[in-house]
Amino acid sequence: METPSINRRDFLRGNLNKSKNERTLNDTLSPYSYPLDRKTAAHLLRRLSFAPTLQQIEFFVGKTAQEAVFILLGEPETEYQPTNSPSWINLTTENPYGADIYTRFQIEGQWKNYHSNLQTWWVNLMIAEQTPSVEKLVHFWSNHFTTEFSYDDAYIPPQILFRQLAMFRKNRLGNFKQFVEDVTLDPGMLIYLGGNLNTNRKPNENYARELMELYTTGIGHYTEGDVKEAARVLTGWRVARYNDEPARNGIYNAYFQPSDHDTEAKQFLGRSIPARDPAFNTEYLVKTEEIRTMLDILFDVRKVAIARFVSAKIYKYFFYSNPNEDATDFINECGDLLIQNDFQLYPLFYAMFSSDHFFNQQIIGAQIKSPTELICGFSKALKKGIANIPGNLSAMEEILIDPPTVQGWEAHHRWITTKTFPNRVKFARDLVNTMTDDEVISFIKTYPAYDDAVELVKNICLHLLPFLPNQDVLDKFTNIALLQNQPVYEWSDMISDKAPAVRGMKALLIEIAKNPAFQLC
Q1: How far is CA 76 from the centre of its chain?
Q2: Which residues, including other chains, have CB under 8 Å from residue 467's CB and lie 6 or more apart?
Q3: Which residues have a Cβ under 8 Å from the Cβ of 137 and sit 6 or more positions away?
Q4: Of the ranges 13-17, 314-318, 470-474, which one carries the lowest mean pLDDT score?
Q5: Rg of the chain over CA atoms, in angstroms?
């Protein structure tokens, strides 16, 4: 099987020619009607999880897309919180910004270590996960509702970021409006966008603006007046960050300060939120009667804009990062489905991932892997642990839970630069070179017909790449890399001798990692 004409895949050569054999993208949510084969099963697993193992691919072969997606999404009401957690998540410190410079640097250094440890813990969780696929959804939402560990000249305690990931896990497939409410009062978000500084005397509009611009409607569906009124609704919330400050709801949780809340009437998106009697200016009532009312107004008045905006964000992350007009009708239908289900996310994800559109040849292999996808996928394939996960992520310019801006990562082509591409290849080469001889031989023998060099190369490519390279590339992989220019019939003896097979397999894996298709999923 030769590589089809590249459509939106060859990021190095920019060749956008459309294959004559490719089906036109279906612009509706009509379901995919064929049983999954190895290619489509691997495609689903690459997009909805962090790359498949051979066993996972085989498990899903023959299943319908609907059956496979049902298994991968799991139960939407179940949180699937990990049973193991970092040891520091409940440790507390004094406020470093009121302490001497030595104490401040000591606490900030401790936070930096915790943040590195949090990244390592989370990536290992991603690698170890089988089904359901939870952490890929958490990764998506963490780049939608962005929070930066290091912002301005300060840091968010990683204990709070750990709890934010748990909140994302809980809400990943639930009701989007409830999700937004939880994000609005999330301690990490309150700190990051200045919600904890928002008072009736000096409103802070940061979150009110990003709530609409980046998290729900997108630009063009609100006025500056709406931003100001939303900020007034959100006044009075604080976060218990330090052990020498109030913690009315417990450390690392948000709490309400009545004296800082604006109790006057507000006018948001053309609708009124009544003034509040000071006697009823309580945490529970402000949350349920003001914040929830504001979100009810937002999701009623701007329901179409929100539904399409969120559907487009899901599409860009899981389907294709730069959709053109071919995807517009599909995204709009996704938005309609979200509205029909009162903003429940599970029916939307289920329909999108089991759609004919998702399995179209124009979607398969059209997305550039994020550093997290690349690291997790190759580690999972080789069954090899990774040293210095934070360092490798940083070298590829994705520091988890610390995006470059409030907009998150732009992704797609931005993942590949003259700086990051060599680092991506270096990571793969270094990981391959850490494999012991026994690990390499074990890796070889996981594939069917492993004693046939030609078939082995094809099977490894089908596992590690989204589509099979053309015959010239396969021949180079087989004859020059794997066989080290030995005759093909020598492969069985090379396996028996072990050392030649190890050298050949490592050379093959490194050549695959250097191939542009390795960067795609």
Answers
A1: 17
A2: 3, 4, 39, 364, 365, 517
A3: 168, 172, 173, 349
A4: 13-17
A5: 25
User: pLDDT tens digits for 364-409?
Assistant: 999 999 999 999 999 999 999 999 999 999 999 999 999 999 999 9
Q: Give CA–CA dist 227/207, Å, rounded.
A: 9
DSSP letter string, 225-254: HHHHHHHHHTTTEEE--STTS--TT-TT-E
Residue 1 has pLDDT above 60, yes or no: no
- Mean pLDDT lowest among 151-155, 183-187, 321-325, 491-495: 321-325
Residue with tokens 């401790």: 110
The Cα 360–Cα 412 span in angstroms is 19
Q: Going by C-beta distance under 8 Å and a sequence separation of 6 or more, which residues neighbour residue 470?
A: 2, 3
Alpha carbon of 211 to those of 221, 225, 276, 306, 355: distances in Å? 12, 14, 23, 11, 30
For residue 304 the two structure tokens come to 């179409």
Q: Is 392 helix (H, G, I), strand (E, B) or coil?
A: helix
What distance in Å separates the CA atoms of residue 182 and residue 189, rounded to the nearest whole number?
A: 10
End-to-end Cα separation, the chain, in angstroms = 18
Q: How many CA atoms lie within 13 A of 313 on its CB side?
A: 23
The string of pLDDT tens digits covering residues 415-430 is: 999 999 999 999 999 9
Listing DSSP states for 415-458 in one string gives G--TTHHHHHHHHHHHHHHT--HHHHHHHHTTSTTTTSHHHHHH
* pLDDT value of residue 27: 82
3-state secondary structure of 264: coil
This prediction's pTM:
0.94
- Spatial distance between the Cα atoms of 281 and 286, rounded to a whole number of angstroms: 6
- Tokens coding 358: 């998702």
Structure tokens at 38: 């190895």
**CA 252 to CA 164: how far, in whole Å?**
10
Which residue is it, tokens 């750990």? 162
DSSP conformation class of 86: -
SS3 273: strand
Q: Which of 353, 384, 413, 359 is nearest to 509 (CA)?
A: 384
Please report, for residues 45, 141, 145, 181, 452, the alpha-carbon distance to residue 168 in angstroms, rounded to integers and kept in the order given: 21, 7, 9, 12, 46
**Could you tell me the pLDDT band of residue 23, with boundaries at 50, 70 and 90?**
low
